[in-house]
Amino acid sequence: MSSNLHPMLNVAIKAARAAGAIINRAALDVESVRISQKQVNDFVTEVDHAAEQAIIDTLLTAYPGHGILAEETGRQHGAKDSDFIWVIDPLDGTTNFIHGFPVYCVSIALTVKGKVEQAVVYDPTRNDLFTATKGRGAYLNERRIRVSKRTQLKDCLISTGFPFRPGDNFKNYMAIMADVMQRTAGLRRPGAAALDLAYVAAGFTDGFFETGLSIWDVAAGSLLVTEAGGLVGNFTGEADFMEQKECMAGNPRIYGQLVPILGKYSKFAAAGDKAAVRQAQEDAAEPEAAPEASDADGNDGDGE
Fold first, then answer.
1. Which label site among 70, 113, 194, 237 has the fewest CB atoms less than 10 Å from its CB?
2. Do the annotations mark residue 92 as ligand-binding?
3. Residue 266 above 60 pLDDT?
4. What is the pLDDT of residue 294?
5. What is the fold of 153-283?
6. Acidic residues: which segments have biased composition (predicted)?
7. Was 217 annotated as part of a binding site?
8. Residue 128 annotated as binding?
9. Which tens digits make up the pLDDT trace of 147-156?
10. 206 marked as binding residue
């Protein structure tokens, strides 16, 4: 740990590395890891729980008066009325982890009166440590990072996450991806949102968007992005996104170009934009239905 880092960030790094050690040990024999299902396609393992406990123990040993908001245990631990809240995702990318797909991370953020002030995203498979303190810049393994300098969306690599929960709007997401894919150099779905945001901060990708994310998925990564000179917000470009389950990030020029593309799909979009999206989806579906309309059995092609 570096002596010139903020002391609270140093403690968060210690906690993240402790969790990473647990994850790496378990990864050596992932087949033996006990897995349970929170809901369809939403998994939790004994590793998530052990890593989370290691993080909480480390943080509360140093700061017993602080609060905790953790993915698996919520607000069970720590002070309930503190202005200092540690927001923890002990293993972002659990589905990747249980398949042995090495894209997952530990995410720890400290919010002070609701604003993120410290951030750590740790990738234990690569030993990559992303850190940020508000006002002091963002770093990867103690080297300063900046968002990419690309200015045209057609040259950009954009990361996202696919819908996987019951009730997710798959049709809407397919339309978003069709809109984005034809305007970019590529679309990627790594499977760990905190790491996706860290990669935007480091300039490895030029932008990111996803719906359905919780605060522990985006808190640390959002500070990394802004401290690296990028922007983060909801799909309409507004900065107050943390609790809105809608996240978009990018370097400033690319962020500005993503807003008009993604904004119309936002739950905060104007009624006219929402109506236009619905109409476009209906128009796109019609040619597919047409060949079946003349079926001998009279089937009109509508599967509903």
1. 113
2. yes
3. yes
4. 43
5. D-Maltodextrin-Binding Protein; domain 2 (3.40.190)
6. 294-304
7. yes
8. no
9. 999 999 999 9
10. no
